[in-house]
Amino acid sequence: MSRDTILAKIKQATQSIAEKAEYPAYEVTDLHSAPRLAGDGLWQIFDRNFRAVNGKTMRSCEELIAFLQQTHQTTGYCDPALWDAVGRVLQQAGLTVETEYHREQYDRYQFGITRATGAIAESGSLILDDDNTSDRLAALSPWTHVAVLAETSIHRTIPDAVVALGEAPNIIWATGPSKTADVEGILIEGVHGPGEQIALCLA
Questions:
Q1: What is the mean pLDDT of residues 183-195?
Q2: Domain containing 58 — which CATH number?
Q3: Considering the domain boundaries, does residue 26 fall inside one?
Q4: Fewer CB atoms < 10 Å away: N or C end of the chain?
Q5: Residues 6 or more apart whose Cβ sits within 8 Å of residue 165
Q6: Domains in the chain: how many in total?
Q7: Bridge partner residues of 27 (DSSP)
Q8: Does residue 99 lie in a domain region?
């Protein structure tokens, strides 16, 4: 069977799903986790829930520098859009920070700093998408990923975040560091992505 024939069959089979289906009707409040939403502010709720899944939250570059120095992570990538706010500060502290991610040298980067599109307080999740993440591999391959976000970009609930989904072709919800329990039910972190997930809130 030729390539053109295969692609034509795929197109024919998927024509009916070319249009996005409407979201099903449901009572939104039935989907909320009241205990996980307890708290005064969205940052406080997110902070608690993100830490509960072994994520780390920080409010300043100084906290990030101290962590990287203590863990001997000296070389990394920073989204060029974050250079003035983050990259330059880390470089002045003696760290090696690059604004171009060389994919063939992925194992050289100990940390990657990218923008987060937002966060979800209820689940303690970061939202990363291709519209705002300068290089997806830079967010997924270094041992430490630092997602920089603004407090105003935090959604209260998962349904709120679903409603706010944009048109980016790839959207990732990162709930703490990557983890798996496939083997013998033993939880291991840092297998399919970062072993340290940091949420750096600067505004």
A1: 78
A2: 3.40.50.10420
A3: no
A4: N
A5: 171
A6: 1
A7: none
A8: yes
